């Protein structure tokens, strides 16, 4: 899983921010992270503390924010057009304010920046056994 992450990260960095392939990789990774999180956490909520869930959470949240702001902006734009044509200017102004907020979130959301914390170990944990050593007694 870690190799896949580094592969996708390297590919997305090489393609640039405006590349279609980079956006497609972000959408695929976001869908996968969201599905993984929901499939694992809904049956047993205590699984949200697992390291794999904590690794998927930043990608999932960036994807959800990205999609909500995109869909919210599209809906707000349609509401502005519809209400402007029917001369409901106050409703159109509120929809335009929502459009501005969604556009700001969409533009300033940086899905390439992950706030997942990297754990740095100074030395090996005490509970680790050296390679090729038995972990207990055979019974």
Lay out the secondary structure.
Blueprint: H1 2-15, H2 20-41, H3 51-85, H4 89-108
Helix pairs in contact: 1-2, 2-3, 3-4
Notes on the structure:
Keywords: Membrane, Transmembrane, Transmembrane helix. The chain crosses the membrane at residues 20-39, 59-77, 89-108. The protein is built from 4 helices and no strands. It is an all-alpha fold. It has one domain (2-108). It is elongated, with a radius of gyration of 22 Å.
Nutshell version of this structure?
With about 140 residues, the protein is mainly α. It is built from four helices and no strands.
* Sheet with the most strands, sense and barrel status: none
**Count of discrete domains:** 1
Number of E strands: 0
Helical percentage: 55-70%
| Portion in beta strands | under 5%
> Order of SSEs, N→C?
HHHH
What attributes characterize this protein structure?
about 140 residues; mainly alpha; 4 helices; transmembrane; transmembrane helix; membrane
